[in-house]
Design brief:
246 residues; alpha/beta; SIR2/SIRT2 'Small Domain'; 2 domains; binds zinc ion
Length: 246
């Protein structure tokens, strides 16, 4: 009889994408918190109410160039983890889609804050590619509307003032409950409800590994804390896990 292969849950935050040139927007020390006028551009109330906010938001998305970002060694390490045959689920606070771009199976990625690679209509909920909306902005439309119903388009992200998708959150809770090992990577673990996930994992008997440059509230409860840069720490951790379980 072979030993049961552990289910590994990996929670990723902004820290895993900074090496891909994507800054921390949303964290406790992220750009939005430090720049309240910019935060209005990603807050649902002003965004829906004020066409000028939307015009600025589209320009910001155009200039940020996030769609062109490439995955880095941290994302690729998680692809290796999946390819090793170990059961893995990725819970991410990031909206950049870089786990899927790197090669992690889309069905194994749970995007807690949605995705900036797609837009949705707030009225009829039609979904389309962000790239196409940005093409319309580049072609001179300052606030592209839904082609079906003329409703307001927004990124398919969770904006400030919006709740997390309860279905995705429930799926993430279930993964945290079921996993044997929970790895938190590049996240401050300070913002709820996401910060509840490692707690759920611990209460369900999972081991916890924290990989983050700064201290987190879970460091003391963790079995292991790794402070090295994610692009080197995560590949090393994955090699070790694969070696332990093969
Ligand atoms: Zn619509």
């Amino acid at each position: 009889m072979t030993a049961k292969r552990p289910l590994i849950a990996v929670l990723t935050g902004a820290g895993i994408s900074t090496d891909s040139g994507i800054p921390d927007y949303r964290g406790p020390n992220g750009l939005w918190q430090r720049d309240p006028p910019a935060q209005r551009l990603v807050t649902i109330g002003p965004y829906l109410a004020d066409p000028e906010v939307r015009r600025q938001a589209w320009l910001m998305r155009r200039d940020a160039g996030a769609l062109a970002a490439e995955p880095n060694a941290g994302h690729l390490a998680l692809v290796e983890l999946e390819r090793s045959g170990l059961p893995v689920r990725v819970l991410t606070q990031n909206v950049d889609g870089l786990h899927q771009r790197a090669g992690t199976s889309a069905r194994k990625v749970f995007e807690l804050h949605g995705t900036a690679r797609e837009v949705e209509c707030v009225r009829c909920h039609a979904v389309g590619p962000m790239a196409e909306a940005l093409e319309r902005v580049a072609a001179g439309d300052p606030d592209p509307a839904c082609r079906d119903c003329d409703g307001v388009l927004k990124p398919r992200t969770v904006m400030f003032g919006q709740p997390l998708d309860p279905v995705v959150l429930q799926q993430a809770d279930a993964v945290a409950k079921a996993c044997d090992l929970f790895i938190a990577v590049g996240t401050s673990l300070q913002v709820y409800p996401v910060a509840a996930l490692p707690q759920i994992a611990l209460e369900s008997g999972a081991r916890l590994i924290v990989v983050n440059g700064e201290p987190t509230p879970f460091d003391e409860a963790a079995d292991e804390v790794v402070r090295e840069p994610i692009s080197t720490a995560l590949p090393a951790l994955v090699r070790r896990l694969v070696a332990e379980h093969s």
